[in-house]
Amino acid sequence: MIKGIRICFIGDSFVQGIGDPEHRGWVGRVLAATHSDITAFNLGIRRNTSEDVLRRCWQEVLLRTLPGADNRLVISFGSNDTIEESGAVRVDPARCLENLAAILDESRRRAITPLVVGPPPVITAGAEHLTRTAKLAAEMSALCQSQRIPFIATTMRLADDPVWTREVLAGDGAHPGSGGYQQLADLILADQWQQWITQSHT
Q1: What would the CATH number be for the domain defined by 5-198?
Q2: What residue spans define the domains of the chain?
Q3: pLDDT digits (tens, 9 = 90+) for 70-120
Q4: Cβ pair 29, 182 in contact under 8 A
C-alpha cells in the first residue's frame, strides 16, 4: 500500500471555487482543515452538468490515481442540470441520476472510494429552480444511501444561510465569496467528511 490519500474533486463551478477572491473555494478550505496526508486534484469546470462530468470523468481521474494507493473521488454536480434553458432543464433529473449511478458503479469497479456533495442552490435562479434542485438532491441522497455511499446535503442548508445568500447577491448571483465557501466547507466538515477520510481503504 502506497502511503497517503489521493483525492480527485470533480464537478462544476462550485467545486472549482468560482467567486472566491482567495482562490480556495470549499475544496481548498476542507483540505486545509483535514489533518491527513492528502494529494488533491481539483477537476471542477464552470457550467458543467452531470453529462459533462461523466463524459470526462475517467479520462481525467485515472491519470491522477496510482495502483495500490488509497484513491478517492468526490463528486458534486446538479445545480447546472436543473437550470432551465429554452424552456427545458439542461439535463433531465432521471438522466442526472443515471450519470451519478454510472460514476459510482465505475468507482466501485476501480476500487476508488467515492463521496458525493449535493448541489448548492443558485440563489438568483428562482424558487422553481430551488425546488427542482432540492428534489434532485433528495433523489441523489437516496441513491447514495442505497449503495452505502456518503452524501452531504447542501441545497436547502445554503439556501437558508445568510452569509451564502448575501455574498451571492453581492457577486454574480450564483457564486459566493470567501465567507460563503467557508460556510459550505464547514457544513461538509461537520457532516460525514472526517468519517470518510479516516475509513479504511477497501
Answers
A1: 3.40.50.1110
A2: 5-198
A3: 999 999 999 999 999 999 999 999 999 999 999 999 999 999 999 999 999
A4: yes
Q: What mean pLDDT comes out for the span 174-200?
A: 95
HSE-CB of 37 using CA atoms within 13 angstroms: 5
